[in-house]
Amino acid sequence: MKSVLLTGLFIGTFGSGAFAAELPKMQNGVLVDPAGRTLYTFDKDTGGKSSCNGGCAATWPPLSAASDASASGEFSVALRDDGSRQWTFQGRPLYLYASDQKPGDTRGDNFGGVWHPVRAATATPLGAGTPATRTYRDSY
Whole-prediction pTM value? Predict the structure, then answer.
């Protein structure tokens, strides 16, 4: 039982980003990874492709997707310049912020005017089965 729980909640370091075995979820109006860490988008990303590589990716680790991960609802997978795979939400690559110290931190909010947590107008969890209309940050 313990190994099943650990497998279902696995989050660890994988390549240059954080590897998510589960899809992100909406928590308290903010999109988070399965460990509860805030997920961000980068205004300079275009066409569903990440513009954050090298040193940028060290500060803003991409939310990496497994090689067998596939699109589900508003989530897709994009190929990064280094050949790794990254989760996207509504076509926007997802990142963590290295300076967020604990689940729920949003220290990267509006960092440099180009980094933003994915926020919902309501706290309705994604995939909860309710057909509620969700409005996400208008910078998309």
Answer: 0.74
